[in-house]
Design goal:
28% of the residues lie in helices and 23% in strands. By secondary structure, it is an alpha/beta fold. It has an eight-stranded mixed sheet with strand order 4-1-5-7-8-9-12-13, sandwiched between helices. Strands 15-16-17-18 form a four-stranded parallel sheet. Helix 7 links the parallel strand 17 and strand 18. Helix 3 crosses helix 8 and helix 8 packs antiparallel against helix 9. It is elongated. The mean pLDDT is 96. It binds aspartic acid. Aspartic acid binds next to loops. The site of aspartic acid has 11 residues, from loops.
Length: 338
């Protein structure tokens, strides 16, 4: 029987960095050379793998939507030649890229697992070895046909994950959706949570450069500050509100939101809380936002909401349809009570 073959796409991140005079920096060629020297990566217990390194390798803080397109195209070009994909990526914006790719790749029938590490593979206490080895085993032996994120000891749906610590080995969590897999002595995948294989073929929607922004409500935010954020030209915004989706009921502030919505800006309400859902009917302060045209992001992570805006606003859809689709579960990114 032919051995499963996995494509590792190395985009950058701490995992393949080395310390330079200005701190950690990507070191081209280091990750594949090091993996080639480590006997465990050629063990018969692991699938065969081939690494493709992006040029340049990036600290993920430097990534933009153009890099999501590059990752999407790299997967599509190699899709028929491999059984699955590992995207080696910096942790800082990994949840954004994984969310973006989950929307961009429609009809995905093979596993795509994002991973990285908190400490470079070059250092002795690195978490890179475990994250890479387990990702290889997950893709080969426990395939989940979704865009996932593996880190620490849990496999998450990519568009449900968020970075929760800059120091711990368990850098990610999925506050509103259980992990798809738990990894200890045994690897256990909760198949009831995994989405069914969608109808193919694989289709990539390349996101463009819509004008999208991210705004955090805070005590004392004024209408003029908000107006500056929402100035023309703007296509969409994620509005990080309090609790169940509340913002000050100030009439001038609500008027600014209403004017922007009427101009076509799609404003998505996401909670500042790590867990839980927006319910704009719960409080008068939330109802005011709904009346101003703000749409609920339900329990989406801010990363999923922002990249969903990029995805929807890059297509030829009218704004009413974009607003409707924000509240529709497209890739398992949100939960709506029936
Ligand atoms: N700054 C790094 C990056 O996101 C952090 C990491 O990979 O952990 O590329």
């Amino acid at each position: 029987m032919a051995r499963t073959t996995i494509c590792i796409l190395h985009t950058g991140g701490t995992i393949g960095m080395r310390r330079g005079p200005r701190g950690y920096e990507p070191d081209p060629g280091f990750l594949s050379a090091r993996m080639g020297e480590m006997p465990e990566f050629s063990s018969a217990a692991l699938p065969a793998w081939k690494l493709h390194a992006f040029d340049p390798l990036l600290d993920s803080s430097n990534m933009t939507a153009a890099d999501w397109r590059a990752i999407g195209n790299a997967i599509v070009e190699r899709y028929d030649d491999f059984d699955g994909f590992i995207v080696v990526h910096g942790t800082d914006t990994m949840a954004y890229s994984a969310s973006a790719l989950s929307f961009m790749l429609e009809g995905l029938a093979k596993p795509v697992v994002f991973t990285g590490s908190q400490i470079p593979l070059a250092e002795v206490r690195s978490d890179a070895r475990e994250n890479l080895i387990t990702s290889l085993q997950l893709v080969a032996d426990h395939p989940v046909p979704e865009v996932c994120l593996y880190f620490g000891d849990r496999l998450f749906r990519g568009n449900r994950a968020t970075k929760v610590t800059s120091k711990g080995y368990r850098a990610f969590d999925s506050p509103n959706f259980p992990p798809l897999g738990r990894i200890g002595v045994d690897i256990t995948i909760d198949r009831d949570l995994v989405r069914p294989v969608p109808p193919g073929p694989l289709r990539l929607t390349e996101v463009g450069q819509p004008e999208v922004t991210d705004i955090r409500v805070f005590p004392g935010i004024t209408a003029s500050m908000l107006a500056r954020f929402l100035e023309h030209p703007l296509d969409g915004a994620v509005l990080h509100t309090y609790g169940a989706g509340n913002a000050p009921e100030h009439p001038e502030l609500l008027a600014v939101l209403r004017e922007a919505s009427e101009r076509g800006v799609v404003i998505v309400n996401c909670t500042q809380c790590l867990a839980g859902s927006v319910d704009m009917q719960g409080y008068a302060t939330g109802s005011g936002l709904a009346e101003a045209g703000v749409v609920s992001g339900f329990d989406m992570t801010p990363e999923a909401a922002l990249t969903k805006l990029f995805f929807l606003l890059s297509q030829n859809l009218d704004r009413t349809e974009v607003r409707r689709l924000i509240g529709v579960d497209l890739r398992g990114e949100l939960t709506r009570k029936a």
